[in-house]
Amino acid sequence: MNWTGKRLPRLEDPALLRGEGSYTADIAIGARAVRLVRSPFASGRIISITPPAEMSAGALLVTGRDLAGLGTIRPTLARFNYVAIGQPILPVERVHFVGQAVAAVIADTPERAEDLAEQVMLDIDPEDAVADLDAAMAPGAPVLHPEAPGNVLVEGQLRQSGCDAAFAGAAHVVELGIRSRRQNATPMEGRGGCATFDRATGRVRLTASCQMPHMLRTGIAELLGMPEADLQVVAPDVGGGFGQKMALFPEYPLLVWLARKYRGSFAWIEDRNENLIASAHSRDQRHVIRGAFDADGTLRGLEVDILSNVGAFSCYPVTCGVEPLMAFAEYPGPYKVPAYAARARGITTNTCVMAPYRGVSRPAITFGMERLMDRAAAQLGIDRVALRRRNLVDSFPCRTAMGMTLDDASYIEAMDRAIDAADLPAFRARQAAARVEGRYLGLGFAVFNERTGYGTPAFAARSMGIVPGYEVVDIAMTPLGEIEARIGASPHGQGLRTALAQLIADRLGVTPDAVRIIHGDTDRTPYGWGTFASRGMVIAGGACQIAADKLADRLRVLAARMLQADPAGIVLRDGQAFAGEASMPLAELARLAHQRSDLFGSDVADRRFNLADTASYDPGGTFSNACHLAEVEVDVETGLVRIARYLVVEDAGRLINPMIADGQVHGGVAQGIANALFEEIIYAEDGNILTGSLADYLPPTAAEIPDIEIIHLETISDASITGAKGLGEGGAIGAPAAIGNAISDALAPFGVDITELPATPARIRALLRGREPTP
Amino acid sequence: MKPAAFDYHAPLTPEAALALLATHGEDGKVLAGGQSLVPTMAFRLARPAVLIDINRIEALNFCRPEGEVLRVGALTRHARFETPVVTGPLGLLLADVVRNIAHTPIRSRGTMCGSLAHADPASEWCCTALTLGATLVAASTAGERLITAGDWFQSIFTTALQPNELLTEVRLPMLGSGWRCGFSEFNRRAGDFALAMAVVALQVEGGVIREARIGLGGVGATPILAAEAAALLVGQSPGEVVWSEAAERAATCFEPTEDINATPEYRRDLVRAVVKRALRKAVAT
Amino acid sequence: MTTQRITLTVNGMTHAIEVEPRRTLADTLRDQCGLTGTHLGCEHGVCGACTVIVDNQPVRSCLMFGIQAEGRSIRTVEGLADGATLSPLQQSFWDHHGLQCGFCTPGFLMLATWLLERETPIDEAELRHVLSSNLCRCTGYQNILKAVREAAKGLGKWVESAPA
């Protein structure tokens, strides 16, 4: 039986379907309720914080002064052009963005905590704020942090030697400015935590809706100056994260501090308004892109200038470099770029902190590159497919301008498959017929690659003070023959329990339901990083495969002893160990190994590890790739875009569970569509946030998201031992570019194209107003 | 996002409700479907001291034609209108409009009278009531007042209803068979508040429009009648040219609201589109 | 803060509880009745995660107070399965990967349970219309729609839409 590659229904699902999932808010019932008092001002000096006139019995108010002596959240990059900024758990002197927590009140119910929070008097002397890139970079702009006088927190600069010559000698220089507006990852479950003090042991258990429990534990212990051993962090069922839940947010150390100080149980469950204004934002970027092309369409040089609004502080542990520096390093994407120049700056503003969100900078850089390609095709009079074919990397491995190695992939094939499936001639006929009726159809596509499953070397190359990378798996077979794999990674809804069980089952000749994946608990799992950066299947999967192979070797040695055969000849299959015709159940072997170790003689090394082993995996990374294709209709009277068809040709190497893989693509594309057309966090000039509810911030519904067609390619590269490449983020990366190109194609008769995300109806109408189509 | 505390009353008769309103006046707030009020309370933008829940007053749960009007009681939920409640153009219009009001679970709780009392500028029912010339019945312990829709809507979230009054019913004119109605609205996402909407009602006789009403919603502080635009239609034969003229006039007959979704210019664009579409729908039915 | 004693009937079981009038039905179910399958995703009536069925109608339990539900028949996700057997809709969600993180799932299940129990047959347009009420951030809705569609077919409730 081969479980890998099967569309196995998920082992996670029955409990979730019965309403028996266990999310942080479920665990928090009964704990004392913590409510944060948040700043109404984008910038200001704290004069005083006055408690409510009537505090009910047991109610508490905590301010920054109560936390005196504790450190700040201060992630680092070992780069000369990075300015480390510390974020206090609760500020004492100044507030830096609307929604920043400045105090906490505690009551016996969430309702009463909210009553008290309303009555806390914040005396803050407001000061001028900078809410966007232009304001923050203007001469004489208010300075957020004295350490960064120009409000630049991080900068990268590079100009390869051939660049000037490439532009000087170019037949065509194609230039484009793009804007990506701010988004919120918007997991359906917000953040939240419940810290409980155990009087018997003096330890605290923090249950938190997070993606990186081990990192969180270390970070909190360090901040609070407490023994790490006194803290257990548990990520229970997590209702989505998409990167937003990676960071060490101030609320979590505060909860642990409360639990220790007051020897009780304290819960903070983020509400939707808090999530929208005060969790983490992303994608607030502006790029200028210039491409130097030969007359035949060959790209000779690429120059990009990237500005990223990183918010008021730097997110821990990945830092505010995560967006600008990724754009800096990965802009060329799947294209051959002989000469590259880039400048990327992370600008601090009086807005919510930026953190990674599915795809990080890639949705924006893919939008930039693919809009550039379409503009170049139009300017040069070359077919868009042909232009890309000329420039896409077509031989592997390929070393990029930035020194990364592109492993085996299918850039051109993915594009060709998508174009074939789209039936361009038929589309052009439909498009022409529709234009006669005053209807505007467009077709667009986007080709991209995505570095996934990257370990220590890649993160170390970013000079991060905390270098995530490896994942560790402890595997064991219990005396009753069940397999437990304890993983350092921590899934948040992706179905990793099922997919990893499939991988392990195949190596050990058992069924996936015999494999229990244990995750999300620092007491029960080895140190590891988490699920982010499209790494779970590649890295935790790789570690599981290695661990399972080690366990299989041990089983073979023991089985060989029992069956009096050569270990090399033992086959594990159907829950049994076979030596030719002879066999024994693995469960029996497991019982003997644990409880009758006397049977195995002294030459079986170290009995404690008879049926347990540990493995880690730490690859350099593997590039997934895809081509997304969208067909849209634009209502030119209202600017509304309807997606008529959406196709993804994606190559994530070997698919462990194609059903889960499809689900990741569907969900990613839906978020990409949201990025392309719907979602935008909006700040007023004074730093007030205007999109604090789901009536203003607009995640699309089933009425707006079309069915998505998927064609899988499976290029197996040796950069990943399972053959799997990462695929969690890809869906979100391709959609803005494909849709932007499709809208631009539809609106070509008006002589306008899309350079700003989301392409809202109002923005589209603004482009069209006063213009008439040319036939 | 938990509401502030309040005292709760659930009277069983209209009289009991009116007595409570008389007692609590400004502090009291009527809770019908709650689909607008409760979110506002969750954000603590509303914090009534006393909630008077009318959901158990069966006497207010009615929806029946009587003579020239359809009488809709305060407890009639939106969902009731999803299949036509009366034959003829009115039932069809209400069934068309109601599908645009939020979503199924909202429609199973929310009420038509509740929407009229809340007076959200983007309420479909408010626009419909104004366009059709509805009459609203405001009751208090002192008796009943009949208020025309034109007098009802005073400003954003503000109506002619006094703090001691309950909107017990709305009366919508039954439209004769010569009437044709159309509705169109624009929103970015299914079920959202519209950025602009139009309700139109045309009386067509012998291929000529004898009477016309065009109502706009979601574009200003209250729904408004585009009377000049409607006047352009009278005496004309239905068709694209007159639709465009009326739409153009409608787009310039008001001072648009500006918000994060729409500039004034864009709102005029949308009005142009929805008026034209509503007119097309009216004659297509 | 005065509390009031009420009795709620949830999934056929009665719960004698004390609530503040301001406590929403969602919080009442979760905190007082111990039924944490009903989730809160926005608390302002947009996301639909808290959808339950009250007197055979789908409602947002964040927009109703617990005290209002006294005497009504309330159904939540915990009441869908028959012992060890998932309901056909739950099974269809499992078979067709209609969930990922699972947070929005109870709301979708209750909304779709109501849809499937309704007399009227369901076509594609109606399916999308009704399900557009709830937000999901993981699945892109495709497999949720598929799960409900397939369940409707199994129950003889599905009709193909007339071609446009």
Automatic annotation (TrEMBL), chain A:
Annotated ranges, domain Aldehyde oxidase/xanthine dehydrogenase a/b hammerhead: 18-128
Gene3D superfamilies in alphabetical order: Aldehyde oxidase/xanthine dehydrogenase, a/b hammerhead, Aldehyde oxidase/xanthine dehydrogenase, molybdopterin binding domain
Assigned keywords, A-Z: Molybdenum, Oxidoreductase
Name assigned to this protein: Xanthine dehydrogenase family protein molybdopterin-binding subunit
From TrEMBL, chain B:
Transmembrane portions of the chain: none
Keywords: FAD, Flavoprotein, Oxidoreductase
InterPro entries: CO_DH_flav_C, CO_DH_flav_C_dom_sf, Diverse_Substr_Oxidored, FAD-bd_PCMH, FAD-bd_PCMH-like_sf, FAD-bd_PCMH_sub1, FAD-bd_PCMH_sub2, Mopterin_DH_FAD-bd
Domain named FAD-binding PCMH-type: residues: 1-177
SMART domains: CO_deh_flav_C (SM01092)
PANTHER family on file: XANTHINE DEHYDROGENASE SUBUNIT C-RELATED
Descriptive protein name: FAD binding domain-containing protein
Source organism of the structure: Roseomonas alba
Automatic annotation (TrEMBL), chain C:
Keyword terms: 2Fe-2S, Iron, Iron-sulfur, Metal-binding, Oxidoreductase
Lineage: superkingdom: Bacteria
CDD domains per UniProt: fer2
Residue ranges occupied by any 2Fe-2S ferredoxin-type domain in the UniProt entry: 4-80
Keyword Glycosyltransferase found: no
Keyword Iron-sulfur set for record: yes
SUPFAM superfamilies recorded: 2Fe-2S ferredoxin-like, CO dehydrogenase ISP C-domain like
Database matches in PANTHER family: OXIDOREDUCTASE WITH IRON-SULFUR SUBUNIT (PTHR44379)
Name this protein carries in UniProt: (2Fe-2S)-binding protein
Organism whose genome encodes this protein: Roseomonas alba
